[in-house]
């Protein structure tokens, strides 16, 4: 069972500027969609090459209300980094701008739904996308407790609260 949010975040690095600007404008970018879908698929294929037969990609649906302050701080930092990225790009400092754009990347519900759709269209039976009611942590543990998964892959220390 995979906390797919961290993978989405990393998937966005491959097209950081395009992704961030498309999220800000509300206009989808098919190039970015292909890049992050390929990233997610490649990560699943890596696990399958190690003998893992079934993968659950668990996506967050809503932000936990208890983390509202933390999420607001993250969004404020993201907006500050976006302003700086645009400034650096305007000055022709593209490498520094790209680093700032990477600091603005976030996984979105739209990205999760596009990834899910790409696995469905490809008829991949070994990867199941699950949408958790709130954050993925509890759903990841539930998949293990119910015997659907034998391990959790996450970078989120909140999983320790759920004893996974």
Written account of the structure:
The protein is mainly alpha-helical and 164 residues long. The protein has a domain at 2-63 and 109-156: 5'-nuclease (Rossmann fold, 3-Layer(aba) Sandwich), CATH 3.40.50. The chain is 57% helix and 9% strand. It has seven helices and three strands. The chain has a three-stranded parallel sheet. The longest helix is centred in the middle third of the chain and has 23 residues, at 68-90. The protein starts with a strand and ends in a 19-residue tail after the last helix. It comes from Eucampia antarctica.
Summary tags:
164 residues; mainly alpha; Rossmann fold; three-stranded parallel sheet; 7 helices; 9% strand
What's the helix and strand layout?
Layout lengths: L1 E2 H8 L4 H10 L4 H20 L5 E6 L7 H23 L3 H9 L6 H13 L5 E6 L3 H10 L19
Parallel strand pairs: 1-2, 2-3
Helix pairs in contact: 1-3, 3-6, 4-5
Pfam family, one: XPG_I
Keywords: Mitochondrion, Phosphoprotein
InterPro entries: PIN-like_dom_sf (IPR029060), XPG-I_dom (IPR006086), XPG/Rad2 (IPR006084), XPG_DNA_repair_N (IPR006085)
At the first level of CATH, the class of the domain at 2-63 and 109-156 is: Alpha Beta
**How many angstroms separate the termini?**
11 Å
Average residue-wise pLDDT? 89
Strand order of the largest sheet: 1-2-3
Quaternary status:
single chain
- The number of helices is 7
Tell me what portion of residues adopts beta-strand conformation. 5-15%
What's the architecture of the domain at 2-63 and 109-156, going by CATH?
Answer: 3-Layer(aba) Sandwich
Secondary-structure element pattern, one letter each? EHHHEHHHEH
Instruction: Pick out the low-confidence regions.
Output: none
CATH superfamily of the domain at 2-63 and 109-156: 5'-nuclease
């Amino acid at each position: 069972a995979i906390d797919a949010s961290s993978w989405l975040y990393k998937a966005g690095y491959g097209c950081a500027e395009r992704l961030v600007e498309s999220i800000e404008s509300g206009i989808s970018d098919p190039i970015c969609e292909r890049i992050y879908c390929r990233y997610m698929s490649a990560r699943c294929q890596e696990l399958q090459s190690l003998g893992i037969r079934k993968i659950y990609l668990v996506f967050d649906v809503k932000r936990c209300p208890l983390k509202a302050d933390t999420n607001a701080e993250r969004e404020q930092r993201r907006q500050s980094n976006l302003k700086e990225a645009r400034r650096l790009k305007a000055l022709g400092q593209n490498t520094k701008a790209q680093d700032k754009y990477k600091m603005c990347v976030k996984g979105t519900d739209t990205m999760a739904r596009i990834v899910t759709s790409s696995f469905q269209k490809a008829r991949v039976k070994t990867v199941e996308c699950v949408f958790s009611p709130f954050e993925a942590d509890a759903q990841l543990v539930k998949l293990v407790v119910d015997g659907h998964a034998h391990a959790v892959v996450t970078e989120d220390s909140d999983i320790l609260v759920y004893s996974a």
